[in-house]
Write the structure tokens for this entry.
Amino acid sequence: MPDGTWLVVGLGNPGPTYAFHRHNIGHMVVDELARRARTPLSPAKGMRAETCQTRVAAGGIGAVGADAVRLVVVKPRTYMNESGQPVAKLMAYHKVDPAHLVVIHDELDLDLGQLRLKLGGGDNGHNGLRSIRSSIGTGDYHRIRMGIGRPPGRQEPADYVLSNFPSSQRTDLEIEIGRAADAIEVLVREGLGAAQNRFNT
């Protein structure tokens, strides 16, 4: 794998009102990464984001070793449609190339329990991805697409993504958050191909 810092961004909306919404699954994965690193997220001055820094080695997140990869984990504190602003600032500050950017987001076209890693692609109507493309000038970064499924019946997608996961899905949700965190560890250490082979479902 190439040397250099990786920036891992989980998309969502700020504040307790949105915390358990389907749209905030990216935030949930970032919380899991910070938990594994045993390093709390804290406000990054002037960045409109909470971050923590850690390393990923053979022993996992927080492990040390000659093969350790530096990771900056990010939870934007902007609303979804302004996510690109803190991402661009943090990329500049940490000198991160788009090839070392990983964005975790919700995906209507996949069911809960499905996860896809990819490099580049369109925004597919996702306001967070659109904002990032606008701010950094490219869509050529890694994405981890977390399935949330389509809304039932005639429910509007906007209402669906801004509603909580039902309690009946909490166990499956926790499993998928853990799988996404595992996938990030493999991606930054072994590359996209290895991560896709193990985690794309």
